[in-house]
Here is the input.
Amino acid sequence: MTAKQLYQILNEKIPTSLSCDWDNDGLMCCPDGDREVRRILITLDVTEAAVAFAAEGGYDLILSHHPLIFKGLKALNHGNTVAAKAITLIRKGISVMSFHTRLDALAGGVNDILAEMLGLEGAEPFGEEGIGRIGSLPQPTTAEKFAAHVKQVLGAPFVLLGDAGLPVKRVAVLGGNGGDDTDAAQAAGADTYVSGELKYHSLTDAPEGGMNLIEAGHFFTENPVCEGLRQLLLTIDPSFDCDLFYSNETKLF
Here is the structure.
């Protein structure tokens, strides 16, 4: 299967109609659309380390959640980190496909996977753009116990809890940066909201705000979708050689 054929299939399965207006994703880099795709590297972010790994490992394609190119490039030179990565990719003949907010909103995408991992039942979209999910726990629990559960399930080094003192039963989730959707989660009926990034004042005001808030890390709330992408690729062609690349290079001190 060629790169352009694979993108056409993925574009049908993860349609642009689900994307937010401000987003930029899709076929980010394609040195040769007719190149056969056999080896695929799946990663949350197209970091320099991911590009180097793909180049050294003989991969034909990088499939990511976060876009390689988000803001417009004004020049293609080594003075810009994104441009420098693009130059390496073109030299090595490696294509990059990124699926961002449309993968957040997709049924079975980022937020459905997050809701399932946290044990939510009957998850359904919430918010104006329908990206987040809201569902219910089988049994109510305390905010502290649920925060510990989130930390353990996602493999996060820590989580932040804004404890409003409410039992946790109806939970909204939004992977990545969900700070602007806190009010929408509460309006949807959530007693608890889990996201990768929340606003500082929202967390500190949670005891008076009437909803428990849990910040679990942008990377850790979205990275599980990489395995979901691997499974999707294998349904398209079981002979694909797909590997996951752990792109989080931040360190705790």
Summary: The longest strand covers residues 132-141. The chain has two domains: 3-100+223-245, 107-216. The chain is about 35% helix and 25% strand.
